[in-house]
Amino acid sequence: KDFWEYDPVGDMWSQKADFGGNKRSGAIGFSIANKGYIGTGYSSPVYYKDFWEYDPSTNTWTQKADFGASARSDAVSFIIGNKGYVGTGRSGTFPNQVYYKDLWEYNPANNIWTQKMDFTGGTRYGAVGFGIDNKGYLGTGSDGVYKKDFWEYTPEECIGLTLYADEDNDAFGDAANIFFAADCIVPVGYVNDSTDCNDSNVLINPGATEVCDNFDNNCDGNIDEGLLLTFYADADGDGFGDAGNAVLACALSAGFVTDTTDCDDTNATIFPGAPEISTNGIDDNCDGYIDEFGTGIEEVKSISLFNIFPNPANNQTTLQFTLPHTSQVNVAVFDLSGKKINSLIDDEMQQGNHSLQLYTTQFSKGVYLLRMKSADGIHNEKLIIQ
User: Fold this and answer.
1) 53 pairs with which residues across the strands?
2) How far apart are CA 44 and CA 48, in angstroms?
3) What is the residue-wise DSSP string for 360-377?
4) I need a surface site. Which of 150, 198, 332, 373 has the fewest CB within 10 A?
């Protein structure tokens, strides 16, 4: 924050009183009449908007009205007549930095900042500026892409400004709350933007990030876009959902699951993996078959040879079967209640003879059912493990 004076006559430097504000980089400076002015800037992690006047006759600093807009660094400044102009710049942390294109006029006579027409060349930081006669000039800089354009600014007589209330102080205004400033002075609480869709919440504005909370955070007319998840009703509370009864929501709520495989969401005893009851005329386990244990065996035997040997089995047994057609085949082991214990095959198999060796040491001793499903039907065989 040190401050120095250069004497071109003697080509020498003299140290003066330290800058009145905090140490920083990326500040702006200009002189009007016999006073110097410095403001804005950055010193990690803080961006500044304070503004100071230097009087060389007394070697003193005096704090003036804060810069009229958001704190920032790497802005640009120039003077026209007895007024200073400050605009553009940046704030925030990479990769979420904000670049500016606004322009503000400072009048040292009344210590007031007035917002002027935005810089036409668009947002940027690190530009250069200067004034010649009654015009200002601004060019170069970057908004992530380096620029070489160059612009002339002509100040105009005030014909009034249409402003919008910014009650939540997020720099975005409410289009329904208008104020006309005939003197072109922007009062506190107003901006020249009219795009805020909720001026009572600082977290909701066109520059905000959309989050899943049932609000349009970024004012694009959509709520929770791209963030909603699909959940399915579980009316019977069995942990399996109804694919025909879905909702979009931010989070899972009571009565809903992510599963879609329940075939009867009104009965808690019917769900994938439930024991199949062979005589009730219901598909208890949602596998697409009704009472597959005890029905249709003779018909299947006529088209699909299915044998187990040895049976009873001690350590292992062999399953042999013949497919008359290429088919998706599922072979599984069930206990006598119809509960699936293990899946042995679930794959497409070619027409012809097949065999599968089953190690029975993984099962407790007792009686089981082996069920084979294919395009030709269902076949069940009893397996005894000793």
Assistant:
1) 37, 62
2) 10
3) GGGS-SEEEEEEEEETTE
4) 150
CB atoms within 10 A of CB 269: 12
Contact (CB, 8 A) for 286 and 292:
no
Rounded Cα–Cα distance for residues 113 and 90 (Å) = 19
HSE of 319, CA atoms in CB hemisphere, 13 A: 22
Q: What is d(CA 276, CA 287) in angstroms, rounded to the nearest whole number?
A: 10
Decide: 219 and 197 in contact? Cβ < 8 Å.
yes
What single letter denotes the amino acid at residue 149?
Answer: D
Residue-wise pLDDT tens digits, 162-174: 999 999 999 899 9
Q: Any idea which residue has 């069930």 for tokens?
A: 334
pTM of the predicted protein model: 0.44
Residues comprising the chain, all counted:
386
Average pLDDT for 260-268: 94
Match 């009965």 to its residue by tokens: 267
Amino acid identity of 298? E
Is 313 in a helix, a strand, or coil?
Answer: strand
Q: What span, in angstroms and rounded, lies between the C-alpha atoms of 261 and 269?
A: 14
Long-range contacts of 94-99 (CB under 8 A, 24+ apart): 98/70, 98/207, 99/123, 99/124, 99/125, 99/143, 99/144
Contact 73, 131 (CB under 8 A): no
Give the pLDDT confidence of 266-320 residue by residue, as tens digits. Answer: 999 999 888 877 778 888 888 877 776 654 333 334 334 678 999 999 999 999 9
